[in-house]
Protein 1
Amino acid sequence: MTEDTAKTMVIKKSRTSWVFFVLVAIGVAAFVFGLTSQHPERAWQAYLINFLLWSAIAQGAVLFSAVMHMTNARWSGPLSGLSESFAAFFPISYILFLVLFLGRAHIFPWLHEDLHGKEVWLNIPFLFTRDCIGLLILYIFGFGYLFNALQLKLDPNQPRGKLRQSIFEAWQRNHRNPEEIKRRMTVWGGLYILAFALVLCLIGFDLVMSMDPHWISTLFGAYHFVKAFFIGLGALIILAAIIRLKQGEMSGIKANHFHDIGKLFFGFCLLWADFFYVQLMVIYYGNIPEETHYVIVRTMLAPWNKLAWTVFIVCFVGPFFILLRQGIKTKPVFMMIICSVVIIGIWLEHLLLLGPALSHDAQAIPLSLSDGLISLGFLGLMAFAVGYFLRIFPETTLVKESN
Amino acid sequence: MPRERHIMGLFRDEHQVVSAINALKESSYKFIRVNLPFPSHKIMDALKLKKSWVGWFTLCGGILGFIAGFGLAIYTAIQWNLIVSGKPIVAIIPFVVVGFEATILGAVFGNVLGLLTQTRLPSYRWLRYYDPRCSGEHIGVLAACEARQEDGLKDFFHKQGAEIRVFE
């Protein structure tokens, strides 16, 4: 590498980091401004939606790597390593969850309601304790898997920062052969997959379903974790497309990789819609008032019905018909656009699930500029975390011939 | 008109097969087909096959199935006009199940139909040019030539590293 190229790279790197930093600053400013306004609950609503969305993206993307390893899949190539970079958002996600405690009065409408016996489960100390422990376990399993996965990929001769140095030292203390490392990856990966299903169910019940405490859907937890994998795949495709467009052939990500992960994304688009439908079907046939009101408010009554149709078209109908074409799945730019639209659609879906409970008697859909700005802040945080990981561990995307 | 001679080159290595296919396509011999015991992307790429139409058959079958499934559910419901639990006679939500299942059924039928028509199955013509070793560990490349070119084609396969089988 010439000195000029190195300088350009450093400048580009610092510029990108500044962009992310500015996005985060804009998000924080919008959130603080929202808190000091007449409607702090709106700021907390945007915060909760973004926490759920971006945490699910990180958790779902890391799940991809664990699933690829557990199934001994080789088609994913560099995508598997790339998905591990989303683990850098785990610590941020955990801190963001702890911050939610400050907004408990605004985000849990059941706090001052008569819960008819459900207060045993729905009370703030127990809710935050179990969710804190759940997320901690999930992230520990995720990092355990990552710690072993990196060991097979990192080049000991690359320049070492503090983090790399400490990881290398930990590996040297417990020297293991590749077979042993793979076995450990299987154990940690298996635990992560199990924890993913259980903890995301818990988060779905506690932070989304509980907003309407008299409504029950036993499948809601599964719906929540299927959705997390769906958008995790979407984010991974976006990241892969960005890297492919920037680095070209050098990235090692080929049209076949986009085609294969595009098929998986298409499959989970169907599965997400299926999980939505099977809940709807049971509620439709059961026809019990405490179940049907949740669906009626969100899909039949103004202003939410328009949002429901938008979500359905953006997250299912559109991607379904577009992704039927093989050619589109192989094109990074198209895939990036489709996945971005789906992720925005899932953001709106969270608003659809939470909005009616948090904004009673809304005459219009409670969306404003500050929601967008807060979301940009979260986007900046995610981009900063993933960018940092890829800068520290650039080898994660490389696939050895033996693999 | 002189009769064509059919000769099969039997290979053990797929790279040799790729090389033989490319060379055959550039020669005056007539490349016919490859029989192989396992799917191979490399050989598929070398064959440079036209894009299959089977997918369109599947799509059309699926769309027809979807329409037929919904149509059947709506038609039968209208015949009886039974109101169940206050639901409308033509209830779209439960009919999705019938529509979905019929979509899958139609797509499967469309796919099978597409496969049969596009691959022109059943085809008995090429059975006489088949070597059982192609279901074992050999890959057979079948080519045809005029009778006077027979030695040349045998020599060609020899040079590519194949065992030869001549079909009478």
Note: The first helix of chain B runs from residue 14 to 26.
Protein 2
Amino acid sequence: MPHNKTQDTLVGLFVASGIASLFFLGLHVSNLSSFSHGKTYEITARFSNSGGLKVKSAVSAAGVKIGSVKSITFDPKTYESVVKMDIDAQYKTLPDDSSASIFTAGLLGEQYVSLDGGGSDDYLKNGSKIEITNSALILEKALGQFLFKSAEEKKGSDDKKGNGKK
Amino acid sequence: MEFFQYLGANTRSSFTKLGRGSYFLVHLIAGISSVLVRPRLLLKQLHSVGVLSFLIISISGLFVGMVLGLQGFYILSRFGAEETLGVMVAASLVRELGPVVTALLFAGRAGSALTAEIGLMKATEQLSGMEMMAIDPIKRIISPRFLAGVLSMPLLAALFSCIGIIGGQLVGTGLLGVDDGAYWSQMQANLDFQGDIINGVIKSIVFGFVTSWIALFEGYDSIPTAEGVSRATTRTVVNSAFSILGLDFILTALMFGDN
């Protein structure tokens, strides 16, 4: 078979560009580079309502992503949501009286767990539990309460007016 | 009555064909080991299957990405979510359009050429000539082409997705004024390596496998006349398109069904 060098070069270029685009997809398009799959430690928090939080949602401190949600389970005894989180091992100086809250990124964004540092000298370690938690804000609930309250106020003021006339 | 006869004969012949195709596939996979001893055969086929499809894949990828950018922007701007354009373009390319459109183009560009080549070899009795010289035509002719098809599909699909994402960025940030940083960062935050990229690659490998199998089998099984070869080429494109789209539905349901 005749040895064709140009053909070899073209095949080489083709394979190289294909592999390069796979790398591009892996590193530049997906989340592979943003979160190292290195060592992590696990902490647990109990929320009375974890709202729309999902597995792999971000865990952040001061707005910086430091870990992700590992699992969300329902505790049938206390009727609470048990959220286990993997925290990157390099952030090992979080005080053990930190509080965890579930916030929403933007009005329609995804929900994430935010850790706010406390003042304790002891640090969170593998298997620690976070005692102070704030549940997710459920928009429907808040709206419902607001509407109910404003209707109540209106009714109250109408009654007063009525009384005044009498 | 005649209709039922026709139906029965047709069903039976299609099952017979499937059986022949499966036997052919086993034979062909068994022949792959002998390709690894002669890498030059594979290289030549990688050139004709992969390198020659390079241009059509890149140009189509660019235009598909640009169209996705335009259409996505039109819909997303209604909801004030233009920043998620990158997610939309990248997710639809990596998960669906990359593997599927590449496979369809591949079936049209490389699959039909493979069928015509093998069919013509059969019509001019080159395959029987090889058998006369005690060379197994499946090992020598079919297996290298099959392996080249399976190997080049994921590379072509990845290339298609990459160029499409860049095309979407050209239109989105260049023409329509989406923020460049938001385009990339939203994409990175929302696409998962395991769930999106790897599944897309698995899809494209499956499509490459099926398309190459259909193309080679139709060529090998064709009636060795001019008309037979032309019919086999048509069947390759039609059957490949059906199997790609059908398999895509099944794979999508399996991979992304639970989220």
Note: Chain B touches chain A through 32 residues (CB under 8 Å).
